[in-house]
Amino acid sequence: MRAWSVVHPGPVEAGGLRDVPKPVPVPEDDELLVKVTACGVCRTDLHVTEGDLPVRRPGVTPGHEVVGVVARAAGDFAVGERVGVAWLRHTDGTCAYCLRGAENLCPASRYTGWDADGGYAEYTTVPAAFAHRLPAGLDDVAAAPLLCAGIIGYRALRRAALPPGGRLGLYGFGGSAHLCAQVALAEGATVHVLTRGEAARRLALGLGAASAQDAYAPPPEPLDSAILFAPVGDLVPVALRALDRGGTLAIAGIHLTDVPPLRYESELFYEKQVRSVTSNTREDAREFLALAARYGVRATTHTYPPARAYEALRDLKAGRLDGAAVLVS
Fold it and tell me: What is the SS3 assignment for 214?
């Protein structure tokens, strides 16, 4: 089969991601073999490709927002059934974190497109216990971004401790943020978007955001909560200054550039708090997919054939996308 492989981690423009032949993967007894029909292009794929995340599997195939059809069954899945493959693919189930319902913190966790080959390929595998059934009424392209961008955005929203009817600021407005915004709006929040891209600002306003402006500008009102989706550490103090007393900033990315020194009086005092977001649990995924179906959450997508995965990553890096890129077989 054809698959993309990170042969030399580094700037995506340098060509370290290459289209190569690989054998069709052989699933373990508890795994599904999935024929890929669509795969979202996530910023984490860019971090894996560029080496921001350390190499765990040399020559790994990225992609962890995978929609496909079961080609070899396991567990309670049947051949021909449509499934989703997400970032989290393994936890030990026995550590203190797993036993308290925080499997996202499991030290033995493993991830699709980082520890194991992902969906920038014709086939991939997934343990049946970590595969997801998808809401009816969502086609493959619409479903793909929900499997990481949507789930992580949902977890970030909950970590941001937004009060009912609260004021939420979203810093960056790509695949994850525009899905998170739809859940927040459906639940009655006032949403302010702060991002560099003009197309992303138009999308935000079209979805119902109360305002959309440059990421470094102050929002029109103090925020109860904020979520930083852009992997830019310089925005941490900016977002903290925008918070009202008692506000919470959640940082949603797996990678963040260095955070500058914080001024206690203007950026942390009055019981402001900062929370990181680490992966997700399977329960997060189930909750979000159910809410996405209930609220009609839909990704704005830009499709690429698999042969143009390299181009999709470059467009993502350059901020040319409003919404999410999806590779469609």
Answer: coil
- Give me 54's structure tokens: 């350390």
pLDDT, averaged in runs of 10, over the chain (329 residues): 96 94 97 98 96 95 98 97 97 98 98 98 98 92 96 98 98 94 98 95 97 98 98 97 98 94 96 97 96 94 96 93 92
Structure tokens at 86: 């997400």
How far apart, in whole angstroms, are the C-alpha atoms of residue 131 and residue 141? Answer: 17
pLDDT on residue 319:
87
Q: pTM of the full predicted structure?
A: 0.92
Query: Which residue, among 130, 131, 135, 111, has the nearest Cα to 61 in the 3D structure?
Result: 111
CATH fold label, 2-133+299-328: Quinone Oxidoreductase; Chain A, domain 1 (3.90.180)
Amino acid at 35: K
- Cα–Cα dist 98/91, whole Å: 8
Structure tokens at 184: 């927040």
Enumerate the domain spans of the chain: 2-133+299-328, 151-276
Query: Residue 81 in contact with residue 69, Cβ under 8 Å?
Result: yes
- Looking at domain 151-276, its CATH class is alpha beta
Amino acid at 191: V
